[in-house]
């Protein structure tokens, strides 16, 4: 079966060690399901990218990244829960509440701190690279940094989503759907809306 896309994956620990893994996205045929076989378990980042470009056409074209004004939007969804949890812990401490009540809230505080760190790590990584032959989408999913490279012929659709807050800031989220029995979606958030539309027109994706 032909590969529709390949993905370079890095957990935060792998990023610290400077290694990555390489996965393939293989669409199912007839009654077979889509699968994602592991091609390389762990190797140096440069070597993994070279292997990836032996499978998929290199993406040397436009590079879109979230603008500077969008950076705070990555942290905003976890900032308020983090602050509210911290304030709640301080408030409970002033009431001389039982220690175990405060202790129970600390895992919640640590969880939101961890989420904030993950969001912060995504800011310099998020990007959409595109040319006439291929797309490359870099984003964070769960605890992993993913960079998916896909030939245009294996893209079944592209959609642009905008929340109210994104519209007010001139930003958007782009979704790219990969060929397969269950269309797999790759998304990059908080890109410049006008810049994205211009890039897609230049590549012939929209008129």
Major pleated sheet:
7 strands, antiparallel
Shape: globular
Pattern of helices and strands: EHEEHEHHEEEEHEEH
Number of helices: 6
Radius of gyration: 20 Å
**Overall mean pLDDT:** 81
> How many β-strand stretches?
10
Instruction: Report strand %.
Output: 25-35%
Strand ordering within the main sheet? 3-2-1-7-6-5-4
Q: Structural class of the helices, strands and pairings?
A: alpha+beta
The N- and C-terminal alpha carbons lie at a distance of: 33 Å
- Point out poorly predicted stretches: none
**Helical amount:** 25-40%
Description of the molecule:
There is one protein chain. This protein has 207 residues and is α+β, with helices and mostly antiparallel strands. Helix content is 39%, strand content 33%. The chain has helices spanning 12-17, 45-55, 71-94, 99-122, 164-169, 193-202, and strands at 5-11, 19-25, 38-44, 62-64, 127-130, 134-141, 144-151, 155-161, 171-178, 184-192. Strands 3-2-1-7-6-5-4 form a 7-stranded antiparallel sheet, sandwiched between helices. Strands 8-9-10 form a 3-stranded antiparallel sheet. The longest helix is centred in the middle third of the chain and has 24 residues, at 71-94. The mean pLDDT is 81.
């Amino acid at each position: 079966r032909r590969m529709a896309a390949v993905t370079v994956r890095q957990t935060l620990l792998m990023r610290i060690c400077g290694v990555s893994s390489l996965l393939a996205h293989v669409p199912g045929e007839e009654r077979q399901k889509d699968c994602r076989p592991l091609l390389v378990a762990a190797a140096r980042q440069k070597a993994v990218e070279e292997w990836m470009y032996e499978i998929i056409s290199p993406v040397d074209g436009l590079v879109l990244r979230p603008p500077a004004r969008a950076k705070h939007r990555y942290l905003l969804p976890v900032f308020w829960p983090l602050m509210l949890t911290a304030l709640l812990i301080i408030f409970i401490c002033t009431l001389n509440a039982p220690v175990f009540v405060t202790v129970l809230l600390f895992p919640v505080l640590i969880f939101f701190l961890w989420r904030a760190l993950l969001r912060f790590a995504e800011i310099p990584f998020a990007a959409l690279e595109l040319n006439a032959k291929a797309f490359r989408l870099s984003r964070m999913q769960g605890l992993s940094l993913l960079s998916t490279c896909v030939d245009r012929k294996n893209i079944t659709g592209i959609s642009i989503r905008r929340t109210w807050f994104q519209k007010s800031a001139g930003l958007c989220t782009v979704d790219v759907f990969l060929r397969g029995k269950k269309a797999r979606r790759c998304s990059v958030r908080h890109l410049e809306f006008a810049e994205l539309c211009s890039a897609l027109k230049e590549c012939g994706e929209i008129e």
